[in-house]
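[step 3/7] fold_predict: job queued, chain A
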Amino acid sequence: MKFSQTFIPTLREVPGDAVIVSHRLMLRAALLRRLANGLFAYLPLGLRSFRKVEQIIREEMDAAGALEFKPPVVVPGEIWKESGRWETMGEGMLRFKNRLNADFVISPTAEEAFTAILRDEISSYRQLPLTGYQIKKYRDEIRPRYGVMRGREFTMKDAYSYHANEESLEKTYQDMGRAYRRIFKRCGLTVIPVRADTGAMGGTGSEEFMVESEIGDNTLILCKTCDYAANVEKAACKDDFERRSIDEAKAAAENIPSIKKIDTPSVKTIDELCRFLKTGAKQFIKTLIYRAENVELDLTGAPGASTLERKSPAPDAPKMYPEAFFAVLIRGDLDVNEVKLAAAVKASEVSLASDEDVIRLTGAPVGFAGPVGLTSLPIIADYSVTSINDGVTGALEKDTHYEHAAFGRDFEPFMLTDVRTVKAGDTCIHCGAALYEKKGNELGHIFKLGYKYTASMNFTYLDEEGKSHKPAMGCYGIGVDRTLASIIEEHHDDDGIVWPMTTAPFHVVVIAIKYDGAVKAAADKLVSELETLGVEVLLDDRDERPGVKFKDADLIGIPLRVVVGEKNLPKVEVKRRIEKENRLVEISAAADELSRIVKEELAALNS
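[step 4/7] structure written:
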């Protein structure tokens, strides 16, 4: 490929709206251009690298036994209503009506589409397991930023597996985990596998594959001693308190004075209470009122829930409460993890209640809620509260708190669970060492979805005895654009991109100092020899100064550079992109040497 015959409009200036390295370099190196906020067009050079990442993913999916499908991006709204996610997905899903007033969705994910396709084809256990995948999708991103790292339109590889039993699901889950590790190794990426929340996908087991990033959307909790790693949304730590049952808590409170109201004028926050009462935050029972949407947890018999009505968005979809409120208790020095809370109550989303709702539900202004005597809504207590037998908490009255409040004696929760946000300095649940934090971006995510979609969409098969069952399901996603951007984030220097051989748009760039006469003949012959050996070559034949060509070569980041100039013939200058110095090589031996380097580097990454 000749430089003059392709389209590589490199930029010397850094675009003002490009914040992160990958965004800046993808624009400067002419990999892509912005069409609108969050919408980018890949140019020929960028598309070559994009296709290589895509092909690596495809090869590893095929090797793991997955079959590629091509469902439409536009799918009927009816299948989303069947699963129950028409109501729960929120504004990230783009919906529209056609001219016949029928509902359609621009698919942000394809669990519904695959399940709808396969339920009409699979009827026997003999047809399972089956894993299908697609490479595409779209979402209406609320805050597009960082180029293709978080674009409005994006490409994902989504795979979905269906199984007759949990053992089969576990095997595919592990196979996919291994395939993902190979994909990222082949792309030259250093990833951190972490335990994760299943989020809007639902399900049970989940693992994310993260890359470290200063602008990462995720906080990773890691152990300095063992291999524990988790997204903060899922992270757990060793208790720094004595966890007690209701009976144990009652016994521990036997000698504690009875609960007593104290005046706390205009004292609302934990910090203010600490100063006012001259005590530490660990003595306080913090009470926060949360609003939850689309709650699947059965609240039958829960305080304040008698008037709530469970509804099913579709005949086979799970029943849910469109809205419910909870009082969440946690020790005063800790913070509530809203992702854990949403998982505990099986809600699509949770958020702090409005001031008006707090007053309506507790009868007190914000800052004075507490569990003692609270009967208007269910109480969810973090395990940290179980050790507090002489605490301070809100008294459901303005400017009033309780002292000597004891878990088990003075109040009991509807649910006891872990809703604690783990932080740096907490203790590893496995080895007891100190935990630390890193920022990261998610590149891939694998889930055990269980029966969430096959149950709601009535997907059944017959077993060996002719009995009907619903298959268990797994889901496995990788962001293709984000993977490409992350390669650049990890592999660059001050001059530009430093591509790994597997994803570089070309393996070698041949720079002809002046593309004429003997230089032209030598450059053309070398390019022909390299291409015969299977090496991908970009020939810079432009009528430009050598310095411009060298700058562009470094910016674009092709792994190997060859300079053909009249002064050095019959030798040529050979230089790796990662090296500072070049060396002279006989042009007669250059093709074989370059081919050997390319094949060795490809073999090392692909091994």
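[step 5/7] annotate
The chain is about 25% helix and 25% strand.
The first strand starts at residue 32 and ends at 36.
exit 0
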